[in-house]
Amino acid sequence: MIRLNAKWTSYPYIVWMLLFTILPLLLVVYFAFTDSSGAFTLDNVKQSALYIPTLVNSIYLAALATLFCLVLAYPFAFIMSRLSFSRQKMMSMLIMLPMWMNFLLRTYAWQAILEDNGVINTLLTAIGLPPATLINTSGAVVLGMVYNYIPFMILPLYSIMTKIDKSILEASSDLGAGFFATFRRVVLPLSLPGIVSGVTMVFVPAVSTFVISGMLGGSGNYLIGDLIEVQFLGNSYDLNAGSATSLLLMVVVLITMAIFSRFETEDSEEALV
Amino acid sequence: MDQNKKIIELKGISKSFDGEQILKSIDLDIHDKEFVTLLGPSGCGKTTTLRIIGGFVTPDAGDLLFLGKRINDVPPYKRKVNTVFQKYALFPHLDVFENVAFGLRLVKTPEKEIVRRVREMLALVNLSDFESRRVDLLSGGQQQRVAIARALVNQPKVLLLDEPLGALDLKLRKEMQYELKKIQQRMGITFIYVTHDQEEALTMSDTVVVMNGGLIHQIGTPQDIYNEPINAFTASFIGESNIVPGIMHRDCLVEFAGRDFVCVDGGFEKDEPVDVVVRPEDVDIVAASDEYLCGKVTSVTFKGVHYEMRVDCGGTTWRVHSTDFTPIGSLVGLRLTPEDIHIMHKSDASGVKNYGGAQP
Ligand SMILES: Nc1ncnc2c1ncn2[C@@H]1O[C@H](COP(=O)(O)OP(=O)(O)O)[C@@H](O)[C@H]1O
Ligand SMILES: [Mg+2]
User: Fold this and answer.
1) Ligand having the closest approach to the CA of B44
2) Range of the domain at B314
3) Taking a C-beta distance cutoff of 8 angstroms, is the pair A238, A41 a contact?
4) CA A150 – ligand 1 centroid, Å
5) What is the pLDDT of residues B180-211, one digit of tens each?
6) Distance of CA A111 to the CA centre of its chain
7) Residues A177 and A203 occupy one common structural domain
8) What is the CATH number of the domain that holds A139?
9) CB count, 10 Å around CB of B88?
């Protein structure tokens, strides 16, 4: 669309991109391939191979959280898209509501809920059950990710599903498809673009998070984001190593997005919704 | 049409939405291989009736029978009925071939047979060259044909069509009317067709069901409906009519426009107030004389085959169709023969239940 309009309308956007995206990116690349004196070196990149287990763990937890988000959000978004217009608006409001609160605060709240003498364990002991270890587990990290990022799964799914007209579902039923056949042959293929953007929008921030793992995961759930944070801001300050680790993560994110965007374009050739 | 085999029966079907009664105890028998049209103004409950037959709306009261068996609680996907939806409702993620093949794939038809039957259907609706086209790039008329093929390929016993030609331009509509009728006869299945276009109903149907306000007013052949409308609503909705109030003095004698006329209808109370219906093309223009109703021509419009005239007779305007030109301002007589005068009960629901023209 933009390309059709006068070219100059995109100039502010280009300047913005240059200043805040391209430039920092170039800096990261520069630092990743130099040492503290500024000379070219591959040491940082080679060294970041050490962090591959941490990276794998990050990918695993983020993938798990993405899967939970998808499983929970999909039926929710579908039901929401079938509600009356006013109810749909109310539901969108309710989903957005927690997002108005600061991300850190929300995660603190979960800390208070999950702590060894937090809300849940207080309740458990009150009814005579043994307390459970909830905080500082990978489960808590996944929970935190699901809680924080699920709106990013619901909203794209919901917005694509509102485009599936009721009459199309009726036509499917009319032609002999029961509930599951209609889901598999009509709803799923038509909502695929929503799944792709939802998955991307949850996975990418989840794989690079450090706040959630830092606050809910304890020392046992050190993720790649935590590592980068420590290298840039923490006690093991090393700009060059940090840049190399960032580069590694960026590669993972780019690969993920490339895989998914391929999904999307392939599909949208047949199914433009 | 098989007159003895009832394929669908509606018995006392009622439906309310938001506390408003949309269908008021509908009774209707539909026969095998019959082309039935539900005809009525917008909002009269045609779509609701069709959706009850298709299974998308559950009636509040009454029974829906399919070949004698009650199917009120059978979901749409188990009914041997297919629908051509008002806005086509094609699957946007599938091409033309796969849209048509949808129903066949669900019942695990062998691939070879799918290809054969889909091609056969696409040939029937003249879309053989469009197999791998995306449906959203087709014209309205082509989408319409895909929708018809997609429904018919499943060999339903009954095909439901909800104003299928509503979105097409006039020329295409005429063509499709003819095509649909041909398809119905060739395939030998029952069509239940919804329209608000009386001409379409008269052209295509074996049986026309005239509806208004959630009630069936009349069921009959197109000829019955046109020539023997049972009440003023049917008369005014189908074709053009002059409708004037009158009083039925006794059988075959009615008074209206200040005169007594001999007619052919009977069976009314003595001096019952009635509606008198006269078709504009039945009125003959003659020289003014005491023998006839007389009036002054107030307008003449050329309509191609005939002139449409308005004749003012003592304050009542009569519409008259004639092939002869009569200039504005002429004083003319209007000759009505007894067969031209149709007497109707005053148009309340009471006259509605005993449908006029018997079902064929
Ligand atoms: N699902 C529904 N909810 C509420 N009202 C409805 C619904 N479906 C139909 N109606 C109402 O029922 C009436 C008849 O509708 P319909 O059967 O579609 O008429 P037609 O097809 O003859 O134009 C209309 O007033 C319409 O607003
Ligand atoms: Mg309708």
Assistant:
1) 1
2) 244-355
3) no
4) 38
5) 999 999 999 999 999 999 999 999 999 999 99
6) 20
7) yes
8) 1.10.3720.10
9) 23
